């Protein structure tokens, strides 16, 4: 319990410090001005969200392979946390895009693939509510999760080839791209903060899922008696 | 039990043939009403239609095996399938569009992409197919 509280406090503190750094430590960007500051939060959340979905994919694979309930719990946990992250990304993105691009939304490669990613994991969560039997629900949703995750890079490349507008990657991008050193530090601090915050959410949600399972078992036992 | 992949393959072939039949019936009407001459582009167009239909059929067969075991299956299938089909639909539409342009271009990159999509999902179905039908 103490460990959970400590993790929660540390994660929240990191996010608050990261928010402070976004506004007061990072230099103001030359052409975009203040609105660029949303980038640190936007891109860091996107990285964390994609990481969480990757964990979800691994959990799905492990469930199909090992058939242990803990992987199913981890799968649904990560799907929910990931959907929350991507929702934030899809909200902060348009806030930035309106003043910079002049439009809220465009069907660009990254925007569309992020949107489809979001839709796929919402379908994953929807699918789970429509199958009653726990072991069947776990297996079928894990299989759907695997197919969904395989689809994401395909969506990205299909639309990248079609058209693109999102800024080219500034991190690990080509030559001539890159961030000011202070900006880079602030960005990586944000990435760290969001990852730890997501880890905290995953731990809490996982424990909740486990408790739900225990309650379910106890209820069934009570019914039998 | 017989090989589950064989069951999937049979369903897949049937679904593909249905899609291709529908497309073959629609194509003449499409050409007449939009006043497009298809003859010159027919070989490349058939290739796009074939690869696209196979892609839709693979993903559709896999996902229908999931949705058939859930409640509200008729509603669930399109909800699960449509996002998954985004790449096939986008690329097929783009390649078809440039084929029917005033200066037709065969976008081989797009056709190759459709092939890659089919291959990825067919492999996934081959590996995971047995688990879909588990009792």
Briefly characterize the structure.
Chain A is built from 6 helices and no strands. Chain A is mainly alpha-helical and 225 residues long. Chain B has one domain.
- Count the helices of chain B. How many? 4
**Largest chain-chain contact?**
A-B, 28 and 32 residues
Low-confidence stretches of chain B: none
Runs of chain A in which pLDDT lies below 50 for 5 or more consecutive residues are: none
CA gyration radius of chain A, whole angstroms: 20 Å
Q: Please describe the biggest sheet of chain A, giving its number of strands, its sense, and whether it closes into a barrel.
A: none
- The secondary-structure class of chain B comes to mainly alpha
Q: Spell out the helices and strands of chain B N to C.
A: HHHH
Distance between the termini of chain A: 33 Å
Main features:
heterodimer, A: 225 residues, mainly alpha, globular, B: 135 residues, 4 helices, 80% helix, 0% strand, elongated
